[in-house]
Write the structure tokens for this entry.
Amino acid sequence: MYLHSFLLDKQNMASIITMLAHLQIPLEHLIEATNNFHDDNIIRHSRFGPSYKGQLMRSGKLINIVARRLDCKHGLGDFEFLTEVSLLSDLKHTNLVTIVGFCEEKEEKIIVTTYEANGSLSNHLSNPNLTWKQRLRICLGVARALSYLHYDEGRGYGVINRIISSDTILLDENWEAKLSCFEYSIKQFHKDQVCICEPIGVTGYMESAIEKTGGLTHRSDIYSFGVVLSEIFSGRKAYIENEANRFLAPWAKYHFEMYNTEDIILPGLQDQMSHSSLMRYSRVVCHCLNEETTFHPDIDYVIATLEGALEIS
């Protein structure tokens, strides 16, 4: 029986744990791998808890790992934990983070994934050494991950990630994008199915329609991706507290629509791109940030346009 045939509720959580037994890692092994979760090994903090780097012996080989220690005090429980573990064990794509295992022991809930050497995209938005071509390749990696999540024909369901942000996009040693964090994801069994749920998202990345109605489709991820595209272009975060234009999305969309990108682009970046590449990129951002969810572009259109932007960059 496939993992996706389960609905994650209290009646079958035990069954899922049994199916995933091969991925269980003893807590003592993770304590050793992270030097007892030493603060020096923390590589990032997020709303879901701290992540620790470490080295773990698996199949006779020492590998670099990240142990994400979920903070259950902030509302993360069995449902979210098992959602992420089951999805990561079922989903396989070059632009998704790879699961190593998990630990559920002594009130600990830890998800272990492969270590991505360059950390989260959020740490590199304003990096002057990250070129326009590298930024486009990162955009394409995320877009291809979304295409796989939303439409892959090899599964009987799609996945709405719900919390796409520059913090949940990791970068490996080759600056290849790896989408992570699936604890709030929803399985979508019919294309364009509207899922009514509690609005959950990251400030600055969630479209207003979700907050108003709670109605969610795969196109909601497209809006969040449009915000990430704006971050990559401007070098600034989606939300900056106590700033006049603290929400990036509407500010960026206005400038893209007015063809006035000089005021928002990261200094030095425009010298690296052709005008045609800029125009294609601008078109994608405007479509993704459309206020009407039904007008958000299909991800295949996004991929094709970004590929074109890269070819003529």
In short: Residues 121-311 form a domain with the Transferase(Phosphotransferase); domain 1 fold (CATH 1.10.510.10). The CA atoms of residues 25 and 103 lie 5 Å apart.
